[in-house]
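subagent[fold] <- orchestrator: predict structure for attached chain, return tokens only, no commentary.
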Amino acid sequence: MKASQTARERARAELTDEITRTARRHLATAGAAGLSLRAVARDLGMASSAVYRYFPAKDDLLTTLIIDGYNALGRVVEEADATRDTSDFPGRWRSSCHAVRDWALAHPHEYALLFGSPVPGYRAPGDTVGPAVRDTAVLARITEDAHRAGALRTADRALPQAGALGLSPIVRELFGDCPEEVVARALSVWTGLYGWVGFEVFGQLDAVMEDREAAFRQHVAHLGDMLGLVERNGVR
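subagent[fold] -> orchestrator:
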């Protein structure tokens, strides 16, 4: 009985994975707002009622795609950070930023699902929060590690105190014992990173510059300066 149950669970997991893979392909043509369980079922040669047994509503499928996307992005950023020496804060920052951009360019439709226009009527459930902050947690950890090591320069100008920004407890917790001024700087560079990546993914930079790779390297270095990271031997 146990072996039979395990086989059923394995079959269910495989079909669930096939449904989500097909749904990701549909994101490229229909977008998140146009995603249809019936269309996914049709592509799989299944009755729509069969797909509903796995995903009772479109929102359930969207939630799975969103969680998978956040986890995929978070995983590559974590792996990029792990390739550098823990005390090489600028190197960790560069690697993590490039991991965000590389993943986004390789998965533009999934990136659009995560960071593009909200899907009308969809409200993300609480179980998306943990995956959603995996990539941000890496950048926060780099910031906190650099702060603890005394490897952050003082800002050239005073920034708003993070406490005055009404940060959520989740965001504040990510930065550990960083002073509020450091958190405020980190939020500025975080939005600068994702703003650039979003512009590139959505085509706003197409007519602006030819060598976007070189421009992004320069942008990341500038953001590192804003954060206060001290480069090793002047290398960027």
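orchestrator: received. Logging for downstream: The CA atoms of residues 75 and 154 lie 31 Å apart. The first helix runs from residue 2 to 30.
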